[in-house]
Amino acid sequence: MADQSIISALILGLIEGLTEFIPVSSTAHVLLAGHFLGFKSPGNTFAVLIQLGAILAILLVYFQRLLSIILALPASPKARGFVLAVLVAFLPAAIIGAIAHDFIKAVLFETPALICIVLIVGGVILYAIDRMPLQPKYKDVMDYPPSLAFKIGLFQCLAMIPGTSRSGATIAGALLMGTDKRSAAEFSFFLAMPTMLGAFTLDLYKNRDALSFDDVTVIAIGFIAAFVSALLVVRSLLNFVSNRGFAPFAIWRILVGTAGLIGLWLVG
């Protein structure tokens, strides 16, 4: 049983890292895969805690840029404006996530059929947005004003529903608000840092009494797998999006959601 949990954790960690920063909903993929693998964790906390691996991956990739922004803060209004924009975008999810945390984890995370339906619906919406003849006004994340960032942050709150995708919601919102595809994906990266770190901290605190040493071992395996696979995605996603757009991810969402519904119908 222990070996099975370790293998499941490895698989789920790889899935987490590969899907966290693309608009397909890593939570949906991890929860659905965990459901069919028979994997359980206290309070469904595994799916959130292994995100720390993905967080560290993006911090590593963007370390030099983050450092340059931090060093420029005292003298650069542009750097200060960018940090403010990220914090403003993070605020709505921080408030709603803290208030609705228990409902999200106890109800929404336990409804695989809902997750599949949201995957499909989100895929259709993302595909439609990707095909819209939108004229971008903003092409550099450093130029995003706080008002735009706040609207993107409101879109991010849709990701409280498993299957929506945090990156998918922020990217779709950014595109509709006048950004280009590359900067929308990049802003999603930056916004992921405080959002995922906040979710990790809250979930760890809420489940501190339910976790055992065995859980820590399994989570550590998932964390390492998520870190390695996320590195590969973060390093290549922006170029992929610039060349191909988001349609491939939209189609993938629809296929996975449909396969999930069929699987639930066949095996429960």
Q: Explain this structure to me?
A:
- With 268 residues, the protein is mostly helical.
- It has one domain.
- It is built from twelve helices and no strands.
- The longest helix has 32 residues, at 213-244.
- It is globular and about 55 Å long.
- The model has no long low-confidence stretch (mean pLDDT 87).
Task: Write a brief structural summary.
The protein is mainly alpha-helical.
Question: DSSP strand (E) fraction?
Answer: under 5%
Task: Quickly count the domains.
Answer: 1
Count all strands and give the number: 0
Q: In angstroms, what separates the terminal alpha carbons?
A: 22 Å
Low-confidence stretches: none
Number of helices: 12
| SSE class | mainly alpha
Range of helix content:
over 70%
Largest sheet entry: none
Order of helices and strands: HHHHHHHHHHHH
Mean pLDDT across residues: 87
Shape: globular
Oligomerization category of the chains in this entry: single chain
Radius of gyration over alpha carbons? 18 Å
